[in-house]
Amino acid sequence: MPDREAILRFLSENPDRASKRDIAKAFGLKGDTRAELKDLLRELEDDGLIERDRKMLRRPGTLPAVAVLEITMRDSDGDLIARPAEWLEDHGAAPKVTVRQSNAGRERGKSRSPSIAASIGDKVLARIFAAPHGKGMSYTARIMKILDRRDGLILGVYRSAPGGGGRLMPIERRGEEYAIDPDFTGDAKDGDLVEVETAKLGRMGLPRAKVHAVLGSVEGEKAISMIAIHSHGIPHVFPAEVTAAAENTKPAPLSGGREDWRHIPLVTIDPHDAKDHDDAVYAEEDPSPDNPGGVIVTVAIADVSWYVRPGSALDREALKRGNSAYFPDRVVPMLPERISNDLCSLREGEDRPALALRMVFSAEGRKVGHRFHRVMIKSAAKLSYQQAQAAMDGNPDDKSGPLLEPVLKPLWNAYRVLKRERDRRQPLDLDMPERKILLTPEGKVDKVIVPERLDAHRLIEEFMIQSNVAAAETLEKRRQPLIYRVHDQPSLAKQEVLREFLGTLNLSLARGAAIRANAFNGILAKARGEPYQDMVNEMVLRSQSQAIYSPENMGHFGLNLMKYAHFTSPIRRYADLIVHRALVGSLGLGEGGITPAEEAALENIAAEISTTERRAMAAERDTVDRLVAHHLAGRLGEAFDGRVSGVTKSGLFVSLPQFGADGFIPVSTLGLDYYHYDEAHQALTGEKTGLGYRLGDGVEIKLVEVIPLAGSMRFEMLSEGQKMPKGTRSFHKSGRARRGTPKKPGTRPPRGRR
């Protein structure tokens, strides 16, 4: 058997051969020694020394064998330099990767087909090659596919120089600064948001750039979301051929086997400001004497697969975007408005094609059966969540009143039936309210609210979950390849960190590899109403794995479901469009089914759309941070109530609940004491006084610095530390906090999201 160091060294040097089978083969392990290897790998994973990426293993902070890269610059030799599209901040600085332009065929001495030519700004899928280099690893990459070819333009803020010319200041924390010669400033004025073209690097000094376009003042109302869109590389302008294809699309006909369901009074229930409507619902009692008290739930989903065919210009652009991105002042849609807001939107009183299913449930909420149909519907009404809920609460209006008895009450009855099974299933029940920023007409922050969570929201959510389960079950039964929405259980290492933290609150978490979501629900229930409720919810969230898309099913831990695939939002998610095509093809429902080429590419597609989803989430979060930072820039010196949202060796992150954003307090500003960082207890504790701060503590802070472009804020602590609970200062997994080298304000700890 190899020792631990030999395995870790092998994983570092062979990221492309990092499965358990590869390790066994490399070390010649057979028979019983394979079982020993499995135990050793589990120990390494528990200790946080390796992490699992589907079937592959790797060292934390290293790149996998295949990764999505963003090409950011050229070095002094003219070689392209890239960085991983996704990288956890707690792994340190993202590694630089030198991109090799040659292709696999040429390297193996086979066909001399052209190289895949990439340029700055492109996003690529690449095979990674690693080699030891000093204290770390050196990476090179071979491009397998260009995922997103950008125009090579970089966004930044122009700052003029006294002697002429100026500099481009980056709008993201990891961005490069560029020099702009006087002849290449165009019409840019100091403080303008500009796009620049980059030039080849010189041997010395800053890289140089040329102003390509001036987008207006960085203080303009539309600048904030545009910064996030550019910095995260989100395509926001549809190519001419895509727009033309959308405008020339004709409405789907009622022919070719499409059933006429226009007599069914389906209704849409959405946010009051929604412009596209993916889903419509209807419910009724099951008339079958064999199912007393049972219900029939009908869900109709926009038939996007009819309009967006595989390989078309619309399809290529939709895959590039992966999903729609939502900002407080705008939406960057996956599909052009002609498709998303018109032909595919289930508008009230208009004929629209849909992929629908009828699901039959017993009185106890257990599904008896389901069946998919390709149909034409006519929505009976467009209702908001608040409108539908008000009608059920005894306050109907002119539109919801006539629908109360025939439509709304049967829907609520069906929800009560389905909720019985949901309560038995016990999905993860985190209490983490989503905040929504409301803007003034000028695009400034007006206020931040927490929308009320209504039964109308829960009803639609449960209907959609059951529809997603039905889609996965049908495709599995047909042996049809698909893309699942998967959520792995928390790693044993994260469970142990959470377990140690809960121990400080006299809460316990059961041990075992086969943990269930209801184990966390028990913890959350015990914390409900306690001062540490928010702290426990935050720590449970951080312990969770990230949900992704995958052609391999591993179930959905958070929902406590074995089979789950996104089906209900094909207007705004490419994953759902793939599932629609798979259903159309496998069930023989007509044109627009999945193709063999798509089936062969499902692994790459899943990786791409998992990345674009995280990209959109990061851009949305950065926009909120920048909006709040701009909003508070004029309030330096004011005191605010906050809550400790993150603890690191370098200091504390404090969130401002009334604004939904956070800032940083460097440990060097906390006082004269020496502070120790305790990871297990998520605390900073003073060595002399024993006073400190823990995750979830309510504190009063003063705003002392704001960097609006970076969306970052720095605070000063006004509250005195609290006496730490017994055991918090046992520093077996802690370290003395660094003083005098605080992180840049706004550099946040990693956040979990299911």
UniProtKB/TrEMBL annotation:
Gene3D superfamilies: Nucleic acid-binding proteins. Its EC number is 3.1.13.1. Residues 720-754 are annotated as: Disordered. PROSITE patterns: RIBONUCLEASE_II, S1. Belongs to the RNR ribonuclease family. RNase R subfamily. Residues 637-718 form the S1 motif domain. Keywords: Cytoplasm, Exonuclease, Hydrolase, Nuclease, RNA-binding. Its main location: cytoplasm. The keyword RNA-binding applies. This is Ribonuclease R. It catalyses: Exonucleolytic cleavage in the 3'- to 5'-direction to yield nucleoside 5'-phosphates. It is an enzyme of class 3 (hydrolase). Residues 729-754 have a biased composition (Basic residues). It comes from the Bacteria. InterPro entries: CSD2, NA-bd_OB-fold, RNase_II/R, RNase_II/R_CS, RNase_II/RNase_R, RNase_R, RNR_Ribonuclease, S1_domain. 3'-5' exoribonuclease that releases 5'-nucleoside monophosphates and is involved in maturation of structured RNAs. It is found in: Cytoplasm.
